[in-house]
Specification:
By secondary structure, the chain is mostly helical. Helix content is 54%, strand content 5%. The strands form two sheets. A five-stranded mixed β-sheet has the order 4-3-5-7-6. Strands 1-2 form a two-stranded antiparallel ribbon.
């Protein structure tokens, strides 16, 4: 390796960014479910909660919690099935470790897995192209905001992406060498991906489609390749079946396939460009990808794909990557229920791999009229601009949007939930209150966190959050200093009907962390009167009487 110091430095930077973000974000909705379910599985040997996804990823996320052995509080051994979100909230916020550590420790699994995935991409790009391509793939991956978003949260997308990428690399190795190592990596990694999240089933049509296009080193016929893929898939699903049966769950392979069918055909309300819709339209998921992917990466990926297509059109990696993007794009466009880019998170590491070919551009091949030195400097400037934009939004990577959406401060106007505000912004709000000298606020929050964990003193306005079931905020009769209302963008998106007057007649003075809209009501008599009416309409006269009379 010619640039070991560069590889070490970039992986270290990626680790530091993900690690720091992991400590400075409140838990998102699904995040309190998976580690709690994994810890329960590891300590009881049974699946009693969160049966909507297979168990491997949850068990991996729970491993850091075992630093306390089996001493954390869980449900009684004789308890049956557990409600996922309520059990997860109690597990995180009412346990023997402080809530911040219960949130942070499971995230370390994904921080480490992301670093391993970065090294996997470096080696892959080096093998296909050269050292410079490996460095470029690593640099793009290290600073990609969507990657850092998942690397810093205890969700299933990062383990799934790691295993799916390893499965693709194993398949490429098998097609090239026909060696046992490639076959073993392919089968084991695909099995692990299927045991993490059902989305990994997309690799079956990907492999079959790729088998229709012989690679440059292919040694067998098309029918035999299809048969081999079918046998590997059969073995992987069979292992999943045996594992899940052994854990006593009813979520077997047949239900995996049924759930995949439900995801493809069911209709769920989605938020897109200021409107809640009953189901997604074909252009929504592709557009979501366009506004969530940094512009430098889109440019480099386009240049890399063109160079790859012209220089190595029959290279096995290029065939598999192209098939993965094509089929995933068709699936995203055809889905009636999925707009969230996290469902296809595994594409972003592969996008960095495709972009790596941009480090090998040749003016004679497709960029005539440009000097090689200018091309290389252009690639470096694009990579540097990605690093700057990533550092600029740190640690709010989940709420990142590119300039097509108007930047991160306007992202809430386009997408919601796991692409924008999933409840992660409480630490940013607490820091803003401390910086601005605001001791207490009016709050509307949606998420799985508890504002009190971050030192936020608040009077609730409208908070569809798990904490609200047991705590509705304080009731203040004194308002020293400014009267500030902080509304989570998720609340604005889902409760627009009841907040209609405020949203129509007042503009936020600031957007904090991309996820909280700040309204200053200190001397706004009309807005305070509306808020008093809102409290009365929701049967909270005590909160209404404590508001200042502007």
């Amino acid at each position: 390796m010619r640039y070991p110091h560069a590889v070490i430095a970039l992986v270290a930077i990626h680790f530091a960014l993900a690690f720091h973000a992991a400590w400075n974000l409140s838990p998102v909705w699904d995040e309190i479910v998976y580690p709690a379910a994994g810890y329960d599985l590891l300590t009881t040997g049974r699946i009693r909660t969160s049966v909507d996804h297979p168990p491997l990823g949850k068990a991996l996320l729970a491993l850091p919690l075992l630093v306390r052995g089996r001493s954390l509080r869980t449900a009684p051994a004789g308890a049956g099935s557990l409600e996922s979100f309520r059990y997860g909230f109690d597990f995180v916020h009412r346990n023997r470790l402080p809530a911040k550590w219960m949130i942070f420790l499971p995230r370390l699994t994904n921080v480490l897995l992301s670093c391993l995935l970065a090294l996997l991409l470096v080696g892959w790009a080096r093998r296909v192209w050269n050292e410079e391509a490996g460095i470029l793939a690593l640099a793009l991956y290290a600073f990609l905001p969507p990657v850092l978003a998942r690397a810093s949260l205890a969700l299933l997308e990062m383990p799934m992406a790691f295993f799916m990428t390893a499965a693709l690399l194993g398949a490429v190795t098998w097609r090239r060498t026909r060696g046992r190592r490639g076959l073993a990596v392919w089968g084991l990694a695909w099995t692990a991906a299927l045991l993490t999240k059902v989305n990994a089933l997309v690799l079956l049509p990907v492999f079959w489609l790729a088998d229709a296009f012989p690679g440059e080193s292919e040694k067998v016929g098309r029918f035999r390749r299809w048969l081999e893929t079918g046998l590997v898939a059969f073995a992987a699903l069979g292992v999943c079946e045996l594992v899940l049966r052994g854990l006593g769950t009813s979520y077997w392979t047949s239900q995996l396939l049924a759930r995949t069918n439900d995801l493809a055909n069911a209709r769920f309300p989605v938020y897109f460009h200021g409107t809640m819709r009953e189901s997604a339209l074909f252009y929504m998921a592709p557009w979501a990808w366009l506004i969530k992917t940094p512009m430098p990466v889109m440019i480099l990926a386009s240049a890399g794909w063109i160079h790859w297509r012209r220089a190595k059109p029959k290279e096995e990696t290029f065939i598999l990557l192209s098939c993965t993007f094509i089929l995933t794009g068709l699936l995203a466009a055809g889905s009636r229920s999925i707009v969230a880019t996290g469902q296809y998170f595994y594409l972003w590491p592969l996008l960095a791999l495709i972009s790596s070919a941009a480090a090998c551009l040749s003016p004679a091949a497709e960029w005539s009229g440009l000097k090689l030195s200018r091309l290389k400097w252009g690639v470096k400037l694009l990579a540097a601009s990605l690093a700057v934009s990533s550092l600029w939004v740190h640690p709010q990577y989940l709420a990142y949007f590119n300039i097509l959406a108007g930047g991160s401060s306007h992202g809430y106007e386009w997408l919601g939930d796991s692409d924008q505000d999933w409840g992660q912004g409480l630490p940013a709000l607490a820091q803003w209150m401390k910086r601005e000298g605001v001791p207490q606020i009016l709050l509307g929050y949606s998420g799985a966190g508890d504002p009190r964990v971050y030192g936020i003193h608040y009077q609730d306005v409208i908070s569809p959050a798990l904490v609200t079931a047991g705590y509705r905020g304080e009731i203040y009769s004194q308002w020293p200093g400014r009267v500030v209302l902080a509304l989570g963008t998720k609340v604005v998106q889902t409760e627009g009907l009841v907040l209609g007057w405020l949203l129509k007649n007042r503009k936020p003075v600031q957007v904090v962390g991309g996820t909280f809209l700040i309204y200053d009501l200190t001397h706004d008599r009309e807005a305070l009167q509306w808020l008093g009416w809102f409290y009365q309409a929701t049967r909270r006269p005590a909160q209404a009487s404590g508001l200042p009379k502007a």
